[in-house]
Each structure stands twice: as C-alpha cells, then as structure tokens.
Recover the amino acids of this structure.
C-alpha cells in the first residue's frame, strides 16, 4: 500500500510527499491505538462478566 501511495505522490515535491506520508502513517498509528484500547476495554468487560457468572454459579 505504501508503494502505491509513493507512486501516486511521485510527481509532487519531496516536502509535500513527506507531509502526506506523515499524515497517513499518523492516522494509521492512531487507528491502531484506538483499536488496541477498545480491545482492552472489551477484554476487561469480558472478565467482569465471567466473574459475575462465576459468583452467581457459586451462590
């Protein structure tokens, strides 16, 4: 994917090209961070649900 973007930007000056790549990679990094945080919250909620089921089972 990075090669495709670089080919599309090959006609632009190097500053514009570097800025565009920086913005794209920053966006990807933030999306990855957001997905990681969401996954950890879902995992924590799953643990809480499992604990509640275990407590209810032991009653």
């Amino acid at each position: 994917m990075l090669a495709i973007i670089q080919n599309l930007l090959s006609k632009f000056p190097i500053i514009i090209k570097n800025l565009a790549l920086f913005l794209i990679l920053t966006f990807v990094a933030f999306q990855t961070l957001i997905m990681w945080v969401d996954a950890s919250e879902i995992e924590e909620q799953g643990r809480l649900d499992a604990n509640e089921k275990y407590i209810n089972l032991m009653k």
Observations:
- The mean pLDDT is 82.
- The longest helix spans residues 14-58.
